[in-house]
Amino acid sequence: MALANAFYSTFAKRNSVFVTSIFAGAFAFNVGFDVAVTSFWDRWNQGKQWKDIRSRYIQEESDS
Amino acid sequence: MARVSFQPTSPARFASTLAKQWGPTLGIWGVGAGTAALFLLSVTPVVKKGLLVNIPLLGTFYEDKTPASDKPF
């Protein structure tokens, strides 16, 4: 009940604040979720992706 | 029954009252519209390379980290 009241008074009372927080939340979730899932994927598949093994095959940093 | 009557106000006073009441709300809507536009247009290269990459912390998410030799074009 107190949580609902706190949520209402900070976010839902003014529609302008509500809509802004929805878009800001979406933006933050977009970045945050992508970073979280990508870092998990890279750790789970450590050593198997091209970016892990490319140093074995790329001769020098400047291609001839 | 009480009688409510309209008190005439000068245009300047009306304008200043209107601005004081609705200014903050319109400001917050402006921030909201800007956030929405930035979010929805973040996929376009113009916004991504022109604006988002330059933001200090958020920029590292939007910058292109693939090495030049790995790009086909």
Structure in a nutshell:
With 64 residues, chain A is mainly α. Chain A has 3 helices and no strands. Chain B: This is Ubiquinol-cytochrome-c reductase complex subunit-domain-containing protein.
Description:
Chain A: It is found in: Mitochondrion inner membrane. Chain A: It is a single-pass membrane protein. Chain A: Belongs to the UQCR10/QCR9 family. The complex is a heterodimer of chains A (64) and B (73). Chain A is mainly α and 64 residues long. Chain A contains three helices and no strands. The longest helix of chain A is centred in the middle third of the chain and has 30 residues, at 15-44. Chain B is an all-alpha fold and 73 residues long. Chain B has helices spanning 11-40, 45-50, 59-62. The longest helix of chain B has 30 residues, at 11-40. Chain B is rod-shaped and about 80 Å long. The termini of chain B are far apart. The mean pLDDT of chain B is 92.
Structure keywords:
heterodimer, A: 64 residues, mainly alpha, 3 helices, 77% helix, 0% strand, elongated, B: 73 residues, rod-shaped
